[in-house]
Amino acid sequence: MNRGWSREEVAVRAARELRDGYYVNLGIGQPTRVADHVPAGIDVVVHSENGVLGIGPTPSRQLEDPDLINAGTELVTALPGASFVSSSDSFAMIRGGHIDLSILGAMQVSSSGDLANWAVPGVAVKGIGGAMDLAVGARRVIVVMDHLARDGSVKLVESCTLPLTGRGVVDQVITNLGVFDIAQEGFVLTELAPGITVEDVQVSTGAAVTVRFPETPVRGCRVAVSESCER
Fold first, then answer.
1. What are the DSSP calls for 198-211, one per residue?
2. What pLDDT sits at residue 115?
3. Is 74 tagged catalytic?
4. Which listed site, 49, 156, 192, 198, has its alpha carbon 20 to 30 Å from 173?
5. How many CB atoms neighbour CB 196 within 10 A?
6. pLDDT tens track for 11-49
7. pTM: predicted TM-score of the whole model, two decimal places
8. Which residue among 9, 17, 49, 158 is the active-site one?
């Protein structure tokens, strides 16, 4: 689905959830783009499971260093003051509750915040990676993903059918269609992407969606229930 936000715009929107002083882990794939869009005036430490603290934006050709990679083996930069630790120390940070925010990708998220992002039955995977530790160890978990799978199937569901990474761990989901909080009543739509309506969201979601837009303007405009916010 190409409607709404592009993947880059989803990363920009996710970056708005960063807070000054946060230690942040960015999952493999789409979440890593968030490092390129840290808002001005916000100082965060980006952590990677392979032991890098202080990852910066994606390197230009001139700054590429094959020895400097993240947990997904993507080339990264290191900001001034960055440090390098063992994998065991890196995971001790996660398991010790020292990661303020983890931004992960997903294949399914349930209305109760269950996360499935590590395996598809019948498809070989190299390993679980750090997702299970991050899902339960980070203080807050945000998922960024396309709203629908490539085959058109729904990814926001009432109950996950894929193997779970963690139960009740997701706090917020940002897709190309909008922003969803996970609350007691399930998915709560709080923001729409440009050109997207509530009806678009409802027909593309496999669970009930509660609409609760903020009373305050979003980026200079107020959003009505059936309108999108033009930026």
1. HHHHHHT-BS-EEE
2. 98
3. no
4. 49
5. 23
6. 999 999 999 999 999 999 899 999 999 999 999 999 999
7. 0.90
8. 49
